[in-house]
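Final report, closing paragraph on structural work. Over the funding period we assembled a curated collection of sequence-structure pairs, and we close with a single example.
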Amino acid sequence: MKLVVQGGTPLKGRVRVSGAKNSSLVLIAASAISSGEVILDNVPKIADVKTQLEIVRVLGGQVVWEGKNTLRLKWPGRLNCEIPYSLAKKIRASNLFLGALAAKRGQVKIPLPGGCNIGSRPMDLHLKGLSMLGFDVSLEHGFIEAIPRNVGGCTIYLDFPSVGATENIMMAAAGAPGTTVIENAAKEPEIVDLANFLNAMGGKVRGAGTDLIRVDGTQEFQGTRFSVIPDRIEAGTYMIAAGVSGGEVTVENVIVKHLQPVIAKLQDVG
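Its predicted structure, as stored:
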């Protein structure tokens, strides 16, 4: 794809921000934990979401779009536990099914994910978390396999506050007996959104948004209806584009708190 942008014109008007891509991808995976139907509102119909939904179907889940941005998800009691490489190579967020399937199915086998070239982002912390929760974790021939042995709550310190590792550990811990404490956890808004979603299904997650998250495990997850947070990256992009072009743009459907770093920098440059 080739995009040609003709600059030099101040941007003006109103734009409505989509639901957060990164939150949508993890909530779709986390819905596998539920024993009932999950309805997600404000889901963007974009390529990564469509690929994530292909994985849902392969695992045995049912997917129905309603209107433009509402998604119905329903999972059977017994799921497939293996994701094919042909899908995993398309999208890094395929790794988020690791924690969800561990919580729901126990055993899980997924390929090393692809789909994003933003630096080198290994899976070490994800595997460390599952191992400490009591799974036998192996990495062979490009596949990660986790088999439950003595699963239970524990304290996990992350050497780096990885968003994906925090999310996978939260999901796996949500279905594990006992209390799990995640130290040096990621604090991004998408982490808070996942915690709120798990709690809406019957989970018990506290501390999301801080570097210390507590998860009390349970097997009682019901269906729910939940709205995805707005995409702060998309909103910030529009704000910066309006600023550098000398324009005036109203950005709608945002959570201002999520945009404070962008607002602060825009104010710094006048």
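The CA atoms of residues 19 and 44 lie 6 Å apart. The first strand starts at residue 12 and ends at 16. We thank the funder for supporting this effort.
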